[in-house]
Prior knowledge:
The complex is a heterodimer. By secondary structure, chain A is mainly alpha-helical. In chain A, 63% of the residues lie in helices and 0% in strands.
Amino acid sequence: MSSHSVDHEAPAILAEVHPAIIPRAELVGHGRDFHWITEKICGIVEGKTPVWWWWCFGAAAFVASFTVAGLIYLVSTGVGVWGHANPVNWAWDIVNFVFWIGIGHAGTLISAILCLLRQKWRTSINRPAEAMTIFAVVCAAIFPVFHVGRIWFAVMPGYLLSGRIFVRLWSGTCSQSLHTVRFPCSSGTSVCFPIWARCATASRRLAIC
Amino acid sequence: MKRKFDHSAPAQRELAGPKYWRSLDELADTPGFREHMAREFPEGASSIDGVDRRQFMKLMAASFALGGLGLTGCRRPEAHILPYGQSVEYTVPGLPLYFATAMPLRKSAIPLLAETHQGRPTKIEGNPSYAPHGGASSILAQASVLDLYDPERATAHTKGGNTLNVGQVNDILAGINKTYAGNGEGLAFLADESASPTRARLVATLKQKFPRAIWAEYEPVQDEPPVVAAQASFGANVKPVYRFAKAQRIVSIDADFFHAEAGALYYARDFAKGRRVTKPSDPMNRLYVAESSFTITGSMADHRLRLASSHILALTAALANKVLATDAYASLAQGLDFPNKDKWIEECANDLLAHRGTSLVVAGAHQSAQVHILVNAINASLGNIGQTVDFVEVEPSVATSISALATAIKAGSVKTLFVINGNPVYNAPVDLEFATLLKSVPEVIRYGYYNDETSALAGTHLAATHYLESWGDARTADGTIVPVQPMILPLFNGLMEVELLARLAGEEKPEAYGQVYATLGGNQKAFEKFLHDGLLEGSAYKAVNVAFDAGRSRSAFATSPALVVLSKDKLEVRFVTDKLDDGRFANNGWLQECPDPMTKISWDNAILVSPRLGKELGISPEGSRLQVARKEEAEFVQGKENAFIGEVTLNGRTVRGPLHIQPGLSNYTVVLSLGYGRTKSGHVGTGAGFNAYAIRTVDGAAYATGATLRNTGERMKLANTQEHWSMEGRDIVREANYEGESGYKENPTFVAGIGMESHSPAVFGDYTPEQFAKLPQQERIRLTALRASTTPRGNSLYETPDLSGEKSKFDGVHQWGMSIDLNTCIGCNACVIACQAENNIPIVGKEQVARGREMHWIRLDRYYSDGKADAEAFGAEGNKILPEDPQVSMQPMTCQHCELAPCETVCPVNATVHDDEGINVMAYNRCIGTRYCANNCPYKVRRFNFFDFNKRATDQLYMGPLGRQSDMPELVKMVKNPDVTVRMRGVMEKCTYCVQRIQQAKIGQKRKAGASGDVMVPDGTIKTACQQVCPVEAIVFGNIKDENSAVSLAKAQDRTYAVLGYLNIRPRTSYLGKLRNPNPHMPDYAALPLSRVEYNNKNGHTPAHGAGHGHEAEKSEAEHGGHTS
């Protein structure tokens, strides 16, 4: 600033323009090169899976298998196993749906707020948040499907989804379900785009394609 | 089939154009080519390599046979379909066929028409030819068809565990005939009561052949007044037949004449005739009831006195003193005490005296002869005999009592005992110790429908036939002879009762048909007419002139029981029957699951105690503090009644059962239902409830005093279907008094002034309910029909499909609607079971009922009101106290077929939609079971198949894939109505207005109409199952577009209202408001029905204000704004 005030008599047009050297934003810190990045990304899939991971996975799979067992029991026996009755015809099925949709909302909300407030550090938060949303929606999706009495009709293509004869879209069941499709769309996008770049790196290294 | 193709030679014209050919041969048109063209298959297709097909089959036959050994399982089961060589009379496949028959029960019978489909009876209707019933039938008749297909009935004759064939059975019977030929010494019979003329004839023959044989009859419950009473009163063998329709004032002395008396069906129907009002000028009867338990008769009472059964004699004596203006019976009345006693009796007597000849006093059949004699005296003095009560001559019974038989057995003089029907080991008076006695008899032969407690102690069991598989006859309560006609061959080679007796009597032609034919006179023409009509015209008992003989009756009062003052430590026990009768229907799932009309408990009986006794026993919980809902005093855990288990001890004998607090009982009377606690019945009956016979003695058959009750502190769950018994001041059932200020006569349109609609803008946009009620009747009918077919939007916030004209949603020829008269509904539950039988509704078992998953399409709501409910004040005193003496309002609730049905808009798959005739139909095939519709139904009348109720046994529902998959035996499937879909799990269902009957009538009418195009079904052709069975004709169904139909007229009455009408869902079922007819002079006179008092309390109406509704609607509009906000 000070040099400008001294050189005010200099011609307005410079003879030669030197573009300002703007330092490139350092996207990869600590001077690491592409090789390091590739190693880092591929190391996750190429390296040995730690034992603790298997333990955790086993425990999670065990808990998740309750769902499968429960659903088998539910479908083979009848929705009476939920424990509800007239006049309260919905119980944990719809409560669980709303619960998981709530979890999904939370993930979306976290990433949306961070995005709106332009927090540069948000990436580390909103990716797990969006992932949480996706998995919450998957969990939530189980319930509207499995709460019905005759699931084999509810999941039959052409009955609910593409048929025009039987479907009444303004029923809450349909409109609510369609409404919740938004979650996998938005969260899926924000989770999948970064993943694609990593997948590309890994696939080139592994010469998959 | 080989087809010949017509390859005609080309016409000349075609040859003129360019020519195409399929091959050179065609061009050449050789004979070989012509043959090739004519063949369907290429040459050699029917033979394989020169071996023709026939030869090939021969060669392969061995391989096929061998293959068959290993692979038979893969073959379809072989089935033979044989056509009728000759068509069965009147049979049109697919159409039901009706035959007249009758259901005998004790000394009466209900004339019936049985609906059969391809030879199997599926549904029972009342025989409309029998005028006293007018086509109505009872809950027991409706459910009886299920017993026919009970897989647990006795399916074989057995002796010592070995099966007997029919020949062996006949040999046994012939052997007895031979052994006891002569005087019959050592032979004894114990039978149930019967009104069969054929049986009476055969019994007379038996007595003649075996003069020293004992013929005893036993029925655990009495449903006809004791004959000794008539003997003592009139010196004649007569019994009363009441004419309720002629009675303006009725006093019931512990008589449950809607349920427990023989002829209850006729009485209910006749009572309704005097109860029904269609306009303010119609008369209405008044009913006084004094009773210890709370019966459905008591629920209809205008004045109800809670009085112990053992005090009834004193009350009757006091009433007789007043009516007869004497004090001859003053000693009998001593000790009688209840609040306002003198005034109650005096005003009741005054009312009777003011209606000489049009009043009627009825005593319960279980009451003592003394009570009946007093009642006869009262009726005689009032000039009612010959007017409201006829005495008809009956044959004196030739049977001895079970006590006499027991004495004979004890003396060892019985060598062979025949137990015909009944179940004495289970239900004989406990002090006879009948099981022990039976073991001491050398030979016991049991003839019974079930292998029950008695069969277990009998060496030989002969399987009886159901009345739907038997030839027989019976007499109705008024004596009309009716045929019992088989609908189907005995399913298990059962033996008919008539044939059994005929064989024992050594008749030459013992076949039941021939015996009945002979009894009826043996005239072919007359007999055919008898079978066709289902009754013998003019065979009713003859009414005789009787005069009360005071002198003669005096001897009956030589000894009279002292009045026992009751207290907590000296209780009275009253034995009553409910839907299981005396226990003979214990294995009937429909009846077991049907909630009792008063207690609403299904699958169990309970020790019913009054609220006061409950408090003294310390079993009354605190009541609900935090919710407005007033729950029954027994505690509810997750909606299940968690009852204490009590022990009733009477004369050293004890019975255990759940305690249930029942408002309206006499304070220190404990009510026990008989017929439960069977130890040897089927899956359904065994273990349901407790056996009250265990403390019942010869002397205390109906009631006994001196019992104690102890709370054991243990608990058990009861399946109670209605824990919430208060209307909370809401306008669900709208009531008014018949007379008096703000009564029906003053304000005929009182229903229009009650409820939210009376404040909201006109639902249909034209008139408010009050304005509508003031329109001329014809205009109301016209508007109802018009509204039904145009669905005007009115003032609805939402756009309703106003599709008048061609695009109308409701453009059918008919527009169906229903009207239910709450004023005549007695809450007998017959509609519930009739609907279950007609519509293939499954039972779900106690555990599921407790969860609220019962499937009944009709729910009979029972509300108590005491005028104290205060919905505004949480935990207020009025909300916590169980009423001791409530008024009862019954309301059958089923799908209302809303024109703007909330269930339809939420269904994602269009499974519930409207048809063009205004029926809210269910397409079961589309339903995926989201249950959204049930959640959105304001009446909560949709029922969901949570499990495969139709396939699995009730104890297998939770077994999942491990359970037996198809548990429904073929036999049980036979009861299903083939016109109605059997629903699978995951499907929603509800009342369809019996759409199958509607369709059948429409098809019939279309066929009849032919080219004339007159497809409108005449009014009265279609009766829904509930309407058809209703003894009081409370339900009217029909075409509301037809301005002359019965339903249009019913709906045009002043008292018409829609439940929850303010929701603007426009239900097609409407109700007629309930009326009460209290006597203003009585001490318990209530100027307003108590439910109305609660309504006024809740809504800030004063009685005068409520009354003013009709007259000053506009003026009060401003005030209304205040309290609706």
